[in-house]
Amino acid sequence: MAYSLGLTLYNLSNRRDAGGVADRPPRPAGRLVWLHAPGADAARSMLELARRLAEEDGLPVLLTCPDHLPPRDGILLQPPPPDTPAEARAFLDHWRPEIAVFAEGELRPALLHDAMERRLPLVMVGARNPCFLRERDGWYPGLMRGLLAGFHSILALDEPAARAFRKSGAAPESVTVTGKLEEESAALPHLEAEREALARQFATRPVWLAAALPEAEEAAVISAHRAALRLAHRLLLIVVPQDPDRAPALAARMEKDEGWTVAQRSEEQEPDPETEVYIADSANEFGLWYRLAPITFMGGSLAAQGCLRDPLEPAALGSAILYGPRPGPFGTTFGRLGAARAARAVGSATDLAEALGDLLSPDRAARLAQAAWAVASDGAEVTERVMDLIRRIMDGDA
């Protein structure tokens, strides 16, 4: 059969990847759900799914992802095993999951073949396009078709994605268009007493935030603030430097070259009505600043190595987003925000100044922020549908 030949060729090509893996923690008792995300971006929705399965159903959940993820209470986080027959067997022998849920479309043939041999139910969610591992891509006759035929359900993002899976070999009746899953909330915590106190100090002043601002972009932000002050003389800029040690030099530069009144949070200086720049350099308080600033510029995205903060953080807290042409690791997220007209792209310091001036109109900033919030919070119905599918499969009702 073509499938057997394709699998053999794939496994032969993977001999160089055979090797040991890190020690695995003990398997928790009871039924176990295994979720797999091909990267940190896909892991957002899988983490939310894992959280809900653990909290609402009391199920142990294993989430595998090749990218490092911060620890989460109640969720086992592990790298996926090397995709060889021996490592696949060892992985499945150890964890013995009752169901496997893959995201986006990444196929790991050795692992999936062993799962199919064990009659492990397979589900694909947030399905975009079927693909093998990037470093293992190639022509393996019948392999993709055979693997996709083994999936119980494939929940596609949209109709083009559904067509891609059907064309690649998935059973037509297994493919359904559902849309994207809900993502783990990006809303950062804050101290409400601090927010209330600062909101009283800011009163009705317009405020914008430069989040995680690198030294390479300081000039652009200064130029944009200078131009915007001509339109709104009471405008306050909050700067969170990428490097807190830059705060004194940045404050001196703004005071000397621009003649601005600057306050530094680490020095316990208050942003009084005459303050034009407030440098928030004390601790990681992004949740506070996103809540106070109706407009956020994403530092690192204009002239540095790439955006330094997750744009869904301000989106989840109602702040309109400005960003440059260098998304860094958040390209997919910015793509979603852009498609929803939920963020404003700028290509230069001049563009940043013009966009900031435009968003000083509260209704324009509010429309952008509302669209961004919708992007950050959609997908709850799809996640509920996936949870119901997982429950029915595990109970033998699907």
TrEMBL record:
One of its GO terms (molecular function) is transferase activity. It is an enzyme of class 2 (transferase). Its EC number is 2.4.99.12. InterPro entries: Glycos_transf_N, Glycos_transf_N_sf, Kdotransferase. It catalyses: lipid IVA (E. coli) + CMP-3-deoxy-beta-D-manno-octulosonate = alpha-Kdo-(2->6)-lipid IVA (E. coli) + CMP + H(+). It is found in: Cell membrane. Residues 27-181 form the 3-deoxy-D-manno-octulosonic-acid transferase N-terminal domain. Keywords: Cell membrane, Lipopolysaccharide biosynthesis, Membrane, Transferase. Pathway: Bacterial outer membrane biogenesis; LPS core biosynthesis. Signal peptide: none annotated. Involved in lipopolysaccharide (LPS) biosynthesis. Catalyzes the transfer of 3-deoxy-D-manno-octulosonate (Kdo) residue(s) from CMP-Kdo to lipid IV(A), the tetraacyldisaccharide-1,4'-bisphosphate precursor of lipid A. PANTHER family: 3-DEOXY-D-MANNO-OCTULOSONIC ACID TRANSFERASE, MITOCHONDRIAL-RELATED (PTHR42755:SF1), 3-DEOXY-MANNO-OCTULOSONATE CYTIDYLYLTRANSFERASE (PTHR42755). Belongs to the glycosyltransferase group 1 family. This is 3-deoxy-D-manno-octulosonic acid transferase. It comes from Paragemmobacter amnigenus.
